[in-house]
Amino acid sequence: MSNEIAVGRVADLPDGGLVGVEVSGHKLILARDGEQVHAAVNRCPHLGFSLTRGPGGLRYSDGVVQCPWHNSRFDVATGKNVEWATGIAGRKVPAGLRPVVGMGRKPKDLSVLPTRIADGQVFVTVD
Asked: What is the span of the domain harbouring residue 83?
């Protein structure tokens, strides 16, 4: 059953930035682009690690978040995979080694969640 939860105020989110939040047991990432806020599950679909914490640090630019563990990159608005397991801890590896880093897993998209803004408050629909 889907449930809508309040995750914060738009004004408290950095414009052009991404933050990790935990609300009601849900670990999420929130990305603000002007008056729009996008939300996704804070889990890389490669191995399930955090997208906001790890050896490569938080990397977010132009609407794309990079996994700090294996460098997979995702469009936060759509969830689409942009690059899959291209390195380790923010460093690139040669193309021939990328299947090893990918550990035989096929590229997957990020799990994005519907958002709604009302009176400056951001609401996210979760399962």
From this structure: 3-126
